[in-house]
Amino acid sequence: MCNYVNMLFVDYLLFDLNSYFASCEQQDNPALRNRPVAVVPMLSDSTSVLAASIEAKRKGIKTGTKVIDAKKMCPGIQFVTTSHRKYLEYHEKILKAVDEIIPIDQVLSVDEVSCQLMGTQRELSKAIELAKKLKSHVQNTVGICLTSSVGLGPNSLIAKIASDMQKPDGLVWIPKEQIHEKLGPLSVRVVPGIGEKTEIMLNNLGIFKIQDILKLSPAEARNKWGSILGTKVLQGLLGEAYLYEHGATQSMGHEHVLEPELRNSAGSFSVAMKLLNKACIRVRKNHYRCGSMHLSIRLVNKEKIEKTLSFSPTHDTGLLMKHLKTMWPERFQAKPFKVSVVLSSLSEK
Ligand SMILES: [Mg+2]
Q: Most CB contacts within 10 A, which of 5, 6, 57, 334?
Protein backbone atom coordinates (compact mmCIF):
# COMPACT_ATOMS: atom_id res chain seq x y z
CA MET A 1 0.00 0.00 0.00
CA CYS A 2 1.18 3.53 -0.70
CA ASN A 3 2.59 5.43 2.20
CA TYR A 4 0.89 8.79 1.66
CA VAL A 5 2.55 10.31 4.71
CA ASN A 6 5.97 10.16 3.10
CA MET A 7 4.81 10.78 -0.44
CA LEU A 8 6.07 13.99 -2.01
CA PHE A 9 3.85 15.99 -4.33
CA VAL A 10 4.40 18.52 -7.10
CA ASP A 11 1.62 20.82 -8.30
CA TYR A 12 3.15 22.80 -11.16
CA LEU A 13 5.58 22.18 -13.98
CA LEU A 14 7.10 25.10 -15.86
CA PHE A 15 8.69 24.36 -19.21
CA ASP A 16 11.13 26.98 -20.50
CA LEU A 17 13.13 26.69 -23.74
CA ASN A 18 16.82 27.58 -23.48
CA SER A 19 18.17 30.45 -25.61
CA TYR A 20 14.99 30.16 -27.63
CA PHE A 21 15.53 32.43 -30.65
CA ALA A 22 19.15 31.29 -31.08
CA SER A 23 18.16 27.62 -30.69
CA CYS A 24 15.53 27.99 -33.44
CA GLU A 25 18.21 29.45 -35.71
CA GLN A 26 20.58 26.57 -34.90
CA GLN A 27 17.79 24.08 -35.52
CA ASP A 28 17.06 25.67 -38.89
CA ASN A 29 20.65 25.93 -40.02
CA PRO A 30 22.96 23.03 -38.99
CA ALA A 31 26.01 25.16 -39.87
CA LEU A 32 25.22 27.26 -36.78
CA ARG A 33 25.04 24.34 -34.36
CA ASN A 34 27.51 24.10 -31.48
CA ARG A 35 28.76 27.56 -32.35
CA PRO A 36 28.35 30.93 -30.67
CA VAL A 37 25.37 32.60 -32.35
CA ALA A 38 23.71 35.91 -31.62
CA VAL A 39 20.29 36.93 -32.92
CA VAL A 40 20.21 40.64 -33.75
CA PRO A 41 17.55 43.03 -35.08
CA MET A 42 19.82 43.99 -38.01
CA LEU A 43 23.41 43.43 -39.06
CA SER A 44 24.99 46.56 -37.64
CA ASP A 45 27.57 47.29 -34.93
CA SER A 46 25.25 49.86 -33.40
CA THR A 47 22.57 47.34 -32.37
CA SER A 48 22.41 44.97 -29.41
CA VAL A 49 21.99 41.23 -29.13
CA LEU A 50 18.39 40.05 -28.79
CA ALA A 51 19.29 36.47 -27.91
CA ALA A 52 22.52 34.53 -27.52
CA SER A 53 23.04 30.82 -28.10
CA ILE A 54 24.20 28.65 -25.21
CA GLU A 55 27.75 28.72 -26.68
CA ALA A 56 27.70 32.54 -26.93
CA LYS A 57 26.39 32.82 -23.36
CA ARG A 58 29.44 30.86 -22.18
CA LYS A 59 31.54 33.70 -23.59
CA GLY A 60 29.57 36.20 -21.54
CA ILE A 61 27.28 37.40 -24.31
CA LYS A 62 23.67 37.97 -23.32
CA THR A 63 20.54 39.84 -24.31
CA GLY A 64 21.47 43.52 -24.50
CA THR A 65 25.21 43.02 -25.21
CA LYS A 66 26.27 45.51 -27.90
CA VAL A 67 27.20 43.85 -31.19
CA ILE A 68 30.52 45.69 -31.23
CA ASP A 69 31.35 44.27 -27.77
CA ALA A 70 30.13 40.77 -28.70
CA LYS A 71 32.62 40.74 -31.58
CA LYS A 72 35.46 41.57 -29.16
CA MET A 73 34.32 39.07 -26.54
CA CYS A 74 33.89 36.26 -29.03
CA PRO A 75 35.71 36.61 -32.35
CA GLY A 76 34.03 34.32 -34.86
CA ILE A 77 30.56 34.72 -33.39
CA GLN A 78 27.83 34.31 -36.02
CA PHE A 79 25.14 36.97 -36.24
CA VAL A 80 21.68 36.12 -37.51
CA THR A 81 18.87 38.62 -38.03
CA THR A 82 15.71 37.93 -36.11
CA SER A 83 12.86 36.06 -37.78
CA HIS A 84 9.72 36.18 -35.66
CA ARG A 85 7.70 34.18 -38.13
CA LYS A 86 10.16 31.31 -37.67
CA TYR A 87 10.02 31.52 -33.85
CA LEU A 88 6.23 31.50 -33.96
CA GLU A 89 6.23 28.47 -36.23
CA TYR A 90 8.44 26.63 -33.75
CA HIS A 91 6.25 27.93 -30.92
CA GLU A 92 3.20 26.27 -32.49
CA LYS A 93 5.10 22.99 -32.98
CA ILE A 94 6.36 23.09 -29.39
CA LEU A 95 2.88 23.71 -27.97
CA LYS A 96 1.62 20.72 -29.93
CA ALA A 97 4.48 18.52 -28.67
CA VAL A 98 3.98 19.60 -25.04
CA ASP A 99 0.26 18.99 -25.33
CA GLU A 100 0.96 15.43 -26.48
CA ILE A 101 2.56 14.76 -23.09
CA ILE A 102 0.61 17.02 -20.72
CA PRO A 103 -2.21 19.58 -21.09
CA ILE A 104 -0.96 23.18 -21.04
CA ASP A 105 -2.42 25.36 -18.33
CA GLN A 106 -0.98 28.70 -19.47
CA VAL A 107 1.17 29.85 -22.38
CA LEU A 108 3.30 32.45 -20.62
CA SER A 109 5.42 33.62 -23.52
CA VAL A 110 6.79 32.43 -26.83
CA ASP A 111 9.18 30.05 -25.03
CA GLU A 112 7.47 29.28 -21.75
CA VAL A 113 4.43 27.27 -20.68
CA SER A 114 3.03 26.28 -17.32
CA CYS A 115 1.22 23.02 -16.63
CA GLN A 116 -0.79 22.06 -13.58
CA LEU A 117 -0.21 18.47 -12.53
CA MET A 118 -3.21 16.34 -11.73
CA GLY A 119 -3.86 13.03 -9.98
CA THR A 120 -0.93 10.64 -9.90
CA GLN A 121 1.17 13.08 -11.98
CA ARG A 122 1.59 15.01 -8.72
CA GLU A 123 3.71 12.27 -7.16
CA LEU A 124 7.32 13.43 -7.25
CA SER A 125 8.73 10.41 -9.10
CA LYS A 126 5.95 10.66 -11.71
CA ALA A 127 6.41 14.42 -12.07
CA ILE A 128 10.15 14.01 -12.67
CA GLU A 129 9.49 11.24 -15.19
CA LEU A 130 6.97 13.48 -16.96
CA ALA A 131 9.42 16.40 -17.04
CA LYS A 132 12.14 14.24 -18.60
CA LYS A 133 9.70 12.83 -21.13
CA LEU A 134 8.54 16.33 -22.04
CA LYS A 135 12.08 17.59 -22.58
CA SER A 136 13.05 14.67 -24.80
CA HIS A 137 9.73 14.62 -26.69
CA VAL A 138 10.15 18.28 -27.73
CA GLN A 139 13.71 17.58 -28.89
CA ASN A 140 12.72 14.41 -30.72
CA THR A 141 9.65 15.79 -32.46
CA VAL A 142 10.44 19.49 -32.96
CA GLY A 143 14.21 19.64 -33.05
CA ILE A 144 17.31 18.44 -31.26
CA CYS A 145 18.53 22.01 -30.66
CA LEU A 146 15.45 22.87 -28.62
CA THR A 147 16.76 22.15 -25.15
CA SER A 148 14.75 23.24 -22.16
CA SER A 149 14.80 23.77 -18.44
CA VAL A 150 11.94 22.50 -16.35
CA GLY A 151 11.01 23.77 -12.91
CA LEU A 152 8.75 21.84 -10.53
CA GLY A 153 7.08 23.51 -7.57
CA PRO A 154 3.98 24.08 -5.46
CA ASN A 155 2.83 26.89 -7.79
CA SER A 156 3.85 28.34 -11.13
CA LEU A 157 5.91 31.18 -9.59
CA ILE A 158 8.16 28.80 -7.63
CA ALA A 159 8.27 26.47 -10.66
CA LYS A 160 9.41 29.41 -12.82
CA ILE A 161 12.18 30.37 -10.37
CA ALA A 162 13.20 26.68 -10.27
CA SER A 163 13.37 26.55 -14.08
CA ASP A 164 15.73 29.54 -14.06
CA MET A 165 18.11 27.86 -11.59
CA GLN A 166 19.64 25.35 -13.97
CA LYS A 167 20.42 26.33 -17.54
CA PRO A 168 20.81 24.89 -20.05
CA ASP A 169 18.96 21.58 -19.96
CA GLY A 170 17.85 21.80 -16.34
CA LEU A 171 15.38 20.04 -14.10
CA VAL A 172 14.93 21.52 -10.63
CA TRP A 173 12.31 20.77 -7.98
CA ILE A 174 11.59 23.15 -5.12
CA PRO A 175 9.10 21.79 -2.59
CA LYS A 176 7.12 24.17 -0.42
CA GLU A 177 9.04 23.02 2.66
CA GLN A 178 12.39 24.05 1.13
CA ILE A 179 11.46 27.50 -0.16
CA HIS A 180 13.11 29.35 2.74
CA GLU A 181 16.28 27.30 2.53
CA LYS A 182 16.66 27.26 -1.28
CA LEU A 183 15.27 30.65 -2.26
CA GLY A 184 15.70 32.71 0.93
CA PRO A 185 19.35 33.71 0.29
CA LEU A 186 18.71 34.74 -3.33
CA SER A 187 18.34 38.34 -4.51
CA VAL A 188 14.78 39.63 -4.95
CA ARG A 189 15.73 40.14 -8.59
CA VAL A 190 15.28 36.44 -9.36
CA VAL A 191 11.55 36.78 -8.71
CA PRO A 192 9.73 37.14 -12.05
CA GLY A 193 8.13 40.57 -12.11
CA ILE A 194 10.81 42.24 -9.99
CA GLY A 195 12.79 44.30 -12.46
CA GLU A 196 15.46 46.92 -11.93
CA LYS A 197 13.02 49.64 -10.83
CA THR A 198 11.19 47.47 -8.28
CA GLU A 199 14.50 46.07 -7.02
CA ILE A 200 15.80 49.59 -6.26
CA MET A 201 12.51 50.49 -4.60
CA LEU A 202 12.65 47.37 -2.41
CA ASN A 203 16.35 47.84 -1.61
CA ASN A 204 15.55 51.36 -0.38
CA LEU A 205 13.02 49.78 1.99
CA GLY A 206 15.63 47.33 3.33
CA ILE A 207 14.48 44.37 1.24
CA PHE A 208 17.37 42.74 -0.60
CA LYS A 209 16.77 39.00 -0.49
CA ILE A 210 13.80 36.71 -0.87
CA GLN A 211 14.01 35.92 2.85
CA ASP A 212 13.30 39.61 3.54
CA ILE A 213 10.05 39.29 1.59
CA LEU A 214 9.13 36.02 3.31
CA LYS A 215 9.31 37.77 6.71
CA LEU A 216 6.61 40.28 5.75
CA SER A 217 2.95 39.98 6.66
CA PRO A 218 0.49 40.28 3.74
CA ALA A 219 -0.37 43.83 4.86
CA GLU A 220 3.31 44.81 5.07
CA ALA A 221 3.96 43.38 1.59
CA ARG A 222 1.08 45.42 0.23
CA ASN A 223 2.45 48.57 1.88
CA LYS A 224 6.00 48.02 0.62
CA TRP A 225 4.88 47.58 -2.97
CA GLY A 226 2.20 50.20 -2.65
CA SER A 227 -0.26 47.81 -4.29
CA ILE A 228 -1.90 44.39 -3.99
CA LEU A 229 0.95 43.06 -6.17
CA GLY A 230 3.10 42.87 -2.99
CA THR A 231 0.64 40.51 -1.32
CA LYS A 232 0.45 38.47 -4.52
CA VAL A 233 4.25 38.10 -4.74
CA LEU A 234 4.41 37.15 -1.03
CA GLN A 235 1.72 34.50 -1.45
CA GLY A 236 3.49 33.15 -4.50
CA LEU A 237 6.84 32.97 -2.69
CA LEU A 238 5.21 31.16 0.22
CA GLY A 239 4.13 28.48 -2.26
CA GLU A 240 0.44 29.31 -1.97
CA ALA A 241 -2.02 29.45 -4.88
CA TYR A 242 -0.63 31.90 -7.41
CA LEU A 243 -1.25 32.75 -11.02
CA TYR A 244 2.12 33.52 -12.56
CA GLU A 245 2.07 35.74 -15.58
CA HIS A 246 5.00 36.89 -17.62
CA GLY A 247 6.30 40.40 -17.00
CA ALA A 248 6.15 42.78 -14.04
CA THR A 249 2.63 44.06 -14.39
CA GLN A 250 2.04 41.02 -16.57
CA SER A 251 0.32 42.74 -19.46
CA MET A 252 -1.60 45.76 -20.65
CA GLY A 253 -4.33 45.37 -23.20
CA HIS A 254 -7.79 46.25 -24.34
CA GLU A 255 -10.66 44.52 -26.09
CA HIS A 256 -13.68 45.77 -27.96
CA VAL A 257 -16.87 44.24 -29.32
CA LEU A 258 -17.19 45.54 -32.86
CA GLU A 259 -20.15 47.63 -33.91
CA PRO A 260 -21.99 45.86 -36.81
CA GLU A 261 -20.62 48.28 -39.42
CA LEU A 262 -17.05 47.45 -38.33
CA ARG A 263 -17.41 43.68 -38.64
CA ASN A 264 -15.06 43.43 -41.61
CA SER A 265 -11.29 43.31 -42.06
CA ALA A 266 -10.70 47.06 -42.49
CA GLY A 267 -13.11 48.04 -39.72
CA SER A 268 -11.76 45.55 -37.20
CA PHE A 269 -8.19 46.50 -38.11
CA SER A 270 -8.85 50.17 -37.38
CA VAL A 271 -10.30 49.19 -33.99
CA ALA A 272 -7.28 46.97 -33.25
CA MET A 273 -4.98 49.92 -34.04
CA LYS A 274 -6.91 52.13 -31.59
CA LEU A 275 -6.72 49.45 -28.89
CA LEU A 276 -3.00 49.10 -29.51
CA ASN A 277 -2.52 52.85 -29.25
CA LYS A 278 -4.38 52.91 -25.91
CA ALA A 279 -2.33 50.01 -24.54
CA CYS A 280 0.85 51.63 -25.78
CA ILE A 281 0.07 54.89 -23.96
CA ARG A 282 -0.37 52.91 -20.72
CA VAL A 283 2.91 51.09 -21.29
CA ARG A 284 4.77 54.40 -21.74
CA LYS A 285 3.01 56.06 -18.78
CA ASN A 286 4.25 53.25 -16.55
CA HIS A 287 7.79 53.56 -17.94
CA TYR A 288 7.70 50.06 -19.42
CA ARG A 289 8.65 48.57 -22.72
CA CYS A 290 6.87 45.52 -24.07
CA GLY A 291 8.48 42.50 -25.71
CA SER A 292 5.43 40.75 -27.08
CA MET A 293 1.99 41.38 -28.45
CA HIS A 294 -1.00 39.09 -28.45
CA LEU A 295 -3.79 39.59 -30.96
CA SER A 296 -7.08 37.79 -30.55
CA ILE A 297 -10.03 38.08 -32.92
CA ARG A 298 -13.28 36.32 -32.11
CA LEU A 299 -15.45 35.65 -35.14
CA VAL A 300 -19.23 35.64 -35.27
CA ASN A 301 -19.13 31.83 -35.70
CA LYS A 302 -17.40 31.67 -32.27
CA GLU A 303 -14.05 30.67 -33.77
CA LYS A 304 -11.00 32.52 -32.56
CA ILE A 305 -7.91 33.69 -34.41
CA GLU A 306 -4.98 34.14 -32.02
CA LYS A 307 -1.47 35.30 -32.77
CA THR A 308 1.49 36.22 -30.59
CA LEU A 309 4.57 38.07 -31.73
CA SER A 310 7.74 38.61 -29.71
CA PHE A 311 10.22 41.37 -30.48
CA SER A 312 12.94 43.55 -29.07
CA PRO A 313 11.40 45.49 -26.11
CA THR A 314 9.88 48.76 -27.24
CA HIS A 315 7.26 51.40 -26.42
CA ASP A 316 7.25 52.95 -29.86
CA THR A 317 3.66 53.09 -31.13
CA GLY A 318 4.74 53.28 -34.79
CA LEU A 319 6.87 50.18 -34.49
CA LEU A 320 4.16 48.27 -32.63
CA MET A 321 1.65 49.25 -35.31
CA LYS A 322 3.98 47.75 -37.91
CA HIS A 323 4.12 44.55 -35.84
CA LEU A 324 0.32 44.46 -35.62
CA LYS A 325 0.11 44.85 -39.39
CA THR A 326 2.33 41.78 -39.92
CA MET A 327 0.14 39.78 -37.53
CA TRP A 328 -3.14 40.75 -39.15
CA PRO A 329 -4.81 37.77 -40.89
CA GLU A 330 -5.07 37.93 -44.68
CA ARG A 331 -8.67 36.80 -44.66
CA PHE A 332 -11.42 35.84 -42.25
CA GLN A 333 -13.52 32.67 -42.48
CA ALA A 334 -16.40 34.58 -40.88
CA LYS A 335 -17.06 38.17 -39.83
CA PRO A 336 -14.96 39.44 -36.92
CA PHE A 337 -16.96 40.07 -33.73
CA LYS A 338 -14.52 41.08 -31.02
CA VAL A 339 -10.89 42.25 -31.13
CA SER A 340 -8.35 42.21 -28.34
CA VAL A 341 -4.76 43.49 -28.31
CA VAL A 342 -2.53 42.74 -25.32
CA LEU A 343 1.04 43.97 -24.81
CA SER A 344 3.10 41.78 -22.50
CA SER A 345 6.64 40.70 -21.54
CA LEU A 346 6.86 44.12 -19.91
CA SER A 347 10.27 45.29 -18.78
CA GLU A 348 11.39 48.42 -17.03
CA LYS A 349 14.29 49.26 -19.28
MG1 LIG B 1 13.62 30.74 -22.14
A: 57
